[in-house]
Amino acid sequence: MKQSFFSVILIVVLLAFTSKGMTQGPLTLKQCIETGIANNLDVLQRELQSQSDRANWKQSRLNVFPDLNANAGHSFNQGRSIDPYTNSPITQSFNSSSYGISSNVVLFNGLAIHHNTKQNALTYQAASMEWQQEKDNLTINIILAYLQVLSNADQLEQARNQHALSGKQVERLQVLNDQGAVRPSLLSDLKGQLAGDQLAIINAQNSLETSKVNLSRLMNVPYNKDINLEKILPESFAATYESAPDSIYQAALENLALIKAVDLRKQSAARGVKVARGQLWPTLSFGGSASTRYSSVARQNQYVNTVYGPTSDSAIINNVRYPVFSYQDKFTDLTKIGYMDQLDNNLYTSFGFNLSIPIFNSLVQRNRVKQAGIRLRSAELVANTTRTQLSQDIELAFVNMTSAADRYKVLLEQVSAFDESFRAAGILFQQGVGTSIDYLTAKNNLDRASINLIIARYDYVLRMKILDYYQGKQLW
Question: pTM of the entire structure?
């Protein structure tokens, strides 16, 4: 017992330690996406719609089976009414019961039930694809928000580095200014730069927290200012995208849930036309029913025996009247009929075929056929337009990716050049040869280029992720 107790304590401690470590560890892109898919309202609503369409599809499959209905009733009657046993008027209080069962099955209705089952199956599949599309859209948005947090975090770090560098220069000039070795204007220029760097930190911090809030909103989790995200490997920034727009488009047609959804919606609408046309045909059905009833006032004579004896009739033979003898059944006075006996005696059954022929109903059904055709045409337009827009989106995404790659490469060179200029300006400024204007100009150029490089770096990764999404590739 003692050993078991300490084992339990050890397990609890290990679990707590593991849980704490997982909480404090950086969130990966995969974890963010999985959390968002599990919590996002739009995704959950799409899932519920998919479940609803699945229930409709299952119901349409069950519609081919016969229905079976039963009924039972019991009533208490006072005053003048009809005896349900004899169907004759009576004036007394009594109670009665009735029971029935019926069934009906459609044998033919222009295959409307069959086509409706197929239509609901396609609708369910389309809803499933739309659910997947909602998850895909959320995935892209989370990736964008995730990269925005990383970008803003890098920009905040860059801003702090700039502020630290300016702070060291201000400290150096403050010492020289106290000794009267520099002009006061130099110190004022550097203090102004330090304040500008401090403002940049404030703006970068605000942008970072805003992007964290946006990511938390997409994940549908409470905002946590201490959230920590896993960095992207440097190799991702140096990757070269190999696929061409045409191949990306062909892959998207095969893999993208959006395309599958609109195609399934078009097929469902085509089945809807067949459903509407099928309802123009006669409907043949087969049905049957059975019923019985009971009345508390039902009475009958009970048979006792049969005797042979004279009757009230007579016959005259040779002018002599003779009585007529016959067999006569003897019954008791009226007695109450038993409950089960009444149910057996009153049992009624029927079965037969029914043919319903639509002749004229204000052309309602023909207008339904026209409406179904319009919905089919609308679904075809949506499918064709979706394909066209997809091709355009892929071309635009590829152009943006190429531009982002070129921009990133140019900014790499610009940062390298401005870094060298700033290093030279710093040496001259510290030696008292260069002016504060030259130093601050070189520093601002480097700072601006560094920030632009950070933005371009994550923009390039995002553009590649979008193209991966169109091809159905894993995004994390």
Answer: 0.78
